[in-house]
Amino acid sequence: MSLVNLPVATGFTILIIIVLFVIFMVQRYVINLRSEDVKARTIFVVYLTYLFLIAFAIVTILHLWDYNIANYFQDLGLDLSIVLEDSIPKLVGTLVVMFVALLILKVSKITMGRVGSKESPNQRRKRTIAKITLSVVKYIIVIIAFLATLSVWGVNVAPALAGLGIAGLVIGLGAQKFINDLISGFFIIFENHFNVGDWIEINGFMGEVTDIGLKTTKVKNFKGEVRIFNNGGIDPVSNFSQHPALAIVDFAIAYKEDVRKTIEVLTKDLPGFENDHPEVLETPRILGVTSLADSGVNMRAVIKTQSMTQWGIERALRQRIKEILDTHDIEIPFPQVTVHYPKDKKQS
Question: What is the reported pTM?
């Protein structure tokens, strides 16, 4: 290649790389669309087109830089025709295996990503099973693709499978904790201990389950901290999402106030609170007097709400009770101490 053509070749090479990058971003956007229009056939066409464009770009760049592959193999003392005749079928077979494996992985990811996307009674359960299924599919596809590639290049796969079986037995004997985590993961999933999206507490750490794998479980608390637990070490676990929660509000009134009147007022004015809060499942209930404190009469109100929303509901209900008591001039006590002085004894 002459020096005159060098800038031209460099410019065309940069242009081809930029075009490939743009096409790559476009194909990622198209494939990652969650709409029902993106089917497996569309993904296959996109991948095949992009693979063809990559091959065409490589050939074009080599041609622009006047690179002769035959001369390279001659310098190595090899006959290009023999090398191509022996290697091209294997390379094509390897590319086909990789392409099919990537296609299956992409289709599986899109399909499993749509599972549990619609609201349903078993939405969290479906999402959990989808994540586990996708994890298992990844392992299986990678192993099959690896063995198929070895077979394409003439490696006898049967001894390799036998070797994997023996190696698996040895590893299993030496990695009992790992096997314990896997078994525990299966029981957690199929016995429905908790699902993705549930709020749980493990060893004092409470948060939302963001991911469940065969070996580990990821939990994120309200601060954004993510803690990873081995499935074999999750014992005990508290699940706050399987049943509705109970919001409890304790309040007090002064001793001079009428308890029965207070209960009647709250019972009359509290209905309608649930209309302003969709997460509330029932009308607030006044349980009555819970204790006689130093400064007032302690009372309690409860309301059933969706799991993990009870704290916000308690704050809102506490505010509503305060407003109702103020409207009816019912005094809320404050800490106070009454001191009695003895009368002076009469002087004799």
Answer: 0.47
